[in-house]
């Protein structure tokens, strides 16, 4: 190659780079698909698919997990204690619940999570802010881990064994019903800022059940679905930004999913830190989901996506102390607003 063509080549490279830069940096982030090649490689050492239901292998311990529960996190100093609590709390449900973090950048807590039996996976699709897509975490989890249900919860949410009891009931309900399932619920806010043992998860669960405050039906911090949930045409919304949570319920209702409000049987304790209870409202690109949903589906009203719009409810039966699923007889009028189909 002569000098002139080298110069031309360099110029072309420069122009292409500038074009890519402009394309990626304009306005609210576009979705960046990470290619399969090296980056999408799963970094967990334990990604083997779990043997089938009641497959009593040599150690007799291999059961099909009831739930694959995953999260993703951003590690700030304040959040580190909270995330460690979550890691410890969720591990108490092993092996019935398999726990996973989708982590693209923060490595500091990996060792701690792995030590507690968590799997660490790289998410295949993220936005510029490195947040995984809601839909793609589920699709990836279904490929990499077999279980009856799949769930996402925010990394500051603690659960009790009631989560498993409710899901066992829902599993038997599902065996008699062809509809896909979505389980959601309100959370309980409990401030861990001034308590004596902010790093003791069982203390927080105990105190939270007692002194926590039930948040509103429009803030949903966990989503559990069956394998047949309609994910195929689910939009590119991300977790950790407002509006995706209500959209999940609206999408489910529009696709004839049996939506179950488990507020009464699945306590979900939100460890509130100094950042408060409205974190989704304070992030960079906070309107990312709203703008996308408005553009794609013309959605401006999210009232059809409250937990109160679920068509089923799980309740405690005071005479048997078991859990029952009941069909809601009526829903608030605002539920009809959008996507009403049944
Ligand atoms: C990339 O991943 C997608 C989804 O997992 C898969 O369908 C496709 O076959 C993969 N492509 C390559 C080249 O591995
Ligand atoms: C149990 O799991 C093993 C793999 O771990 C598989 O080879 C075997 O076929 C399974 N047995 C049944 C009955 O599903
Ligand atoms: C897992 O589920 C089995 C069967 O329902 C139950 O006997 C066991 O206690 C559960 N394990 C934990 C740790 O809750
Ligand atoms: C599902 O059907 C079976 C058999 O009819 C019944 O025993 C069971 O109670 C049902 N489960 C639920 C949750 O309705
Ligand atoms: C925690 O204590 C500080 C100092 O006493 C106080 O200003 C703050 O309001 C308390 N925060 C909460 C959430 O109770
Ligand atoms: C954590 O709290 C629980 C419940 O209040 C208590 O039983 C336990 O001793 C505490 N653990 C530590 C290490 O403080
Ligand atoms: C509680 O359980 C009993 C016995 O299974 C049943 O007859 C009753 O209808 C249940 N109550 C509710 C509120 O589901």
Which descriptors would you attach to this protein?
342 residues; alpha/beta; Spore Coat Polysaccharide Biosynthesis Protein SpsA, Chain A; 9-stranded mixed sheet; 4-stranded mixed sheet; 15 strands; binds 2-acetamido-2-deoxy-beta-D-glucopyranose
Describe the fold and architecture.
- It contains 8 helices and 15 strands.
- The protein has 342 residues and is of the alpha/beta class.
- It has one domain (48-336): Spore Coat Polysaccharide Biosynthesis Protein SpsA, Chain A.
- The relative contact order is 0.13.
- The structure holds 2-acetamido-2-deoxy-beta-D-glucopyranose (7 copies).
- One 2-acetamido-2-deoxy-beta-D-glucopyranose binds at residues 51-52, 55, 57.
Side by side, the strands of the main sheet go 4-3-2-6-11-8-12-14-15
Taken from the alpha-carbon principal axes, the silhouette is: globular
Percent of residues in beta strands? 15-25%
Order of helices and strands: HEEHEHEEHEEHEEHEEHEEHEE
Identify the CATH class.
Answer: Alpha Beta
What average pLDDT do the residues reach? Answer: 82
Q: What's the number of extended β-strand segments?
A: 15
CATH A-level architecture: Alpha-Beta Complex
Q: What hetero molecules are in the model?
A: 2-acetamido-2-deoxy-beta-D-glucopyranose
The domain count comes to: 1
Look at the structure and name the CATH superfamily.
Answer: Spore Coat Polysaccharide Biosynthesis Protein SpsA, Chain A
Number of helical segments with 4 or more residues = 8
Name the helicity range.
25-40%
Keywords: Signal
Signal peptide: 1-27
